[in-house]
Design brief:
Length: 221
């Protein structure tokens, strides 16, 4: 059916595949928008009974809008949207955008302490039954920073705050994906700032933050 995938019952899917002795690859994730007749699953099972087909469909919840139940990017997108509206020419409220950057930075710092799922489900006998799409650290973190960075090349205060946020994240980074995110965003922000003409005092503020960030990145590993 047409709509947003709001939730998927992976435990029930695993139990169903174990019962049928099959394997399932789930091609959609909570937050994805699907249209009629879209291929959302692939399985080794060629035919299903009416009962099993209904059980399979019942594992998926669809709706007209996204929800944060199993879709963490939705909550991030909402905060990013507030920042983008604040940066729009009609509103021009960098302080609200900075507040959003601060909250998103705090969220990313917390994510550095989390272990993300691998997207594989096994039954009680240890047989792999399901492979599914998962949220990654880099996916969430880049969602939090990308659009605000793209929208704010002319707003130095927001760019500086993002660089300060990256320094906070670098201080807590412990995995290659964490460092990769910091390096990528630092490079993109630095590239955007080089395209702008700033007075010497502003350029000093930029360079001091970049230097601090470079020192943290050099201490990696």
């Amino acid at each position: 059916q047409c709509g947003y995938v709001q939730a998927i019952n992976y435990d029930q899917l695993t139990a169903l595949m174990s019962k049928l002795d099959g394997y399932l690859e789930v091609l959609v994730a909570p937050g994805d928008f699907v249209v009629n007749r879209k291929t959302s699953m692939r399985s080794t099972i060629k035919e299903l009974s009416i009962v099993d087909e209904k059980s399979l469909h019942d594992c998926f919840t669809f709706g007209s809008k996204r929800t944060p139940i199993q879709d963490p990017e939705f909550a991030v997108d909402q905060l990013v949207e507030i920042a983008l509206r604040a940066l729009s020419p009609g509103i021009n409220d960098p302080y609200s955008a900075i507040a959003c950057v601060d909250k998103l930075t705090a969220m990313i710092c917390d994510l550095t302490q989390e272990t993300f799922p691998q997207g594989i489900a096994f039954d009680r006998e240890g047989v792999k039954r399901i492979n599914y799409k998962v949220t990654s650290f880099e996916g969430l973190a880049n969602t939090a920073y990308d659009q605000i960075r793209q929208y704010s090349p002319n707003c130095l205060a927001v760019c500086l705050r993002q660089l300060e946020g990256l320094a906070c994240i670098a201080e807590q980074a412990r995995e290659p994906s964490h460092w990769a995110f910091v390096r990528h965003q630092k490079h993109m922000i630095e590239h955007g700032l080089k395209q702008q003409n700033f007075i010497d005092l502003d350029r000093e503020k930029i360079n001091s933050r970049l230097q601090h960030l470079n020192e943290l990145l050099q201490s990696d590993g």
